[in-house]
Amino acid sequence: MNQPPAGDSRRPVGAAGTDPWGRSGVLGGLTLIVAVSVGLMTACVQSDGQAMNVVFEPTLDEFINWEASFSLEENDSVLNITPAVTVVHDGLLIADRSENQVRSYNLDGSLRWALRSVSGQMLTKVLSVTPLRDSLLAIGTDGKAHALATDGSGGRTISLNISEAHYAAPFPGNRMAVATRFSPGDTTGLLRIFDGVRLTEVARLFRPRVEPALLGAASLAGWAGFSVRADTAAAYFSLADTIWLFSDDTQIEAIPLPSRRRLAAEPLPRNSARKDRVEWAARTSMINGLWWKRDGSFLVQYMEFVDNRARYSLLHMSREGEYLFEVAGSSELLAWDAAADTGYFVDPTADEPNRIVIGRLR
Description:
single chain, 362 residues, mainly beta, 4-stranded antiparallel β-sheet, 4% helix, 49% strand
């Protein structure tokens, strides 16, 4: 595999990460993690060197069988900084908002193609690329949709009139949905639904209640996401402890998250100082991923930001909301292949998110 040039300024020194405001971050502290047979052991040490307490935490190894690993091919013009992964039947599609790039990979990690523009229109902070009928659709945080052929050629650009998109994927009814960030002035819904052919907006769904005290926090780190299974969509709001189910564009159920570690979001004044925002993000868990497994259960990923770096945790819960397991400090889950029932995780031993490990729940 071609390696990026040493000292490439596009990749932060140390481990790459992004804070809640989309900025690349550099690991600013040192974390010591000791792996033991029963999980992670963390100790609080007094000034005299005596341990105050010891807490044992489970690890992913207790719940997942690791089946394969591979590296994503890189070169002088291709780096994986913030890869958003979509699994397709014969490979991986990756959108990297930090690199303003869309890529296609074979299942062994070899690069097929990469592009930064569509028909002369530069990609800007592209957040997802996904199959749509017989083509691909890449969507940026600026709400522009770039339709292109499956080989990366041709294409057109369409404005979806969305100011801050967060996630996009196919939606029941041969449609496309774009999950957006929270805006206090918008009361129409965080899921924008578009016709799958013309990409004209046809519906808006999902407006979770935000308490007045949390408007500042929601304005900073409030976003929606979703996962689809057959004709039902499961949606989340980053600062809420609930999964909402929709069928035929109607909410049919609300399932409380059974997380045993998730912290409730605290109030954050609007227009607060950056120091206050950073401290708030370090003690607040924000959902940033939801996957519907083949057996109907859910995987929910959430994160805190410590030293300007994301720290991930993974919750497994049944369709009825029963707690199955939860792992704090887990490897980042990039995608779940519902057909194969396997997950694509960032290799915990890698310094950058360019090495992937594939795992299956036991």
